[in-house]
Design brief:
The chain has helices spanning 4-12, 56-67; strands spanning 31-35, 39-44, 75-79, 85-88. It has 92 residues and is α+β, with helices and mostly antiparallel strands. Strands 1-2-3-4 form a four-stranded mixed β-sheet, with no helix packed on it.
Length: 92
């Protein structure tokens, strides 16, 4: 059963978003990332207790959480603490 508030929202064609998102997955890596229309590049800052490459699953789940959607279509690269880039294959 809809309330009068729901009826008003439907009449005004309003869209509401859930701003009470769950906490992001915990990572032991500290990283920054850049996202374009086709590429996600992740750089380890060296400030975490684990390298981003060693904690990559949690890192990618964090990015999905922040991006609020799947990152499967993106090409993903990760730069380790020594400056080497690694391609990451992610299927969620």
């Amino acid at each position: 059963m809809r309330t009068s508030l729901e009826d008003q929202q439907m009449a005004n064609h309003e869209i509401s978003f859930n701003t009470n998102l769950s906490d992001p997955p915990r990572t032991r890596a500290d990283f920054i990332y850049k996202i374009t229309s086709t590429l996600i590049s992740i750089t380890d800052t060296g400030l975490g207790s684990r390298p981003a490459t060693a904690d990559i699953e949690a890192v990618l789940r964090n990015i999905e959480h922040w991006h609020q959607g799947s990152i499967n279509p993106f090409k993903i690269t990760c730069r380790d603490g020594k400056g080497f880039w690694h391609e990451v294959h992610w299927d969620g």
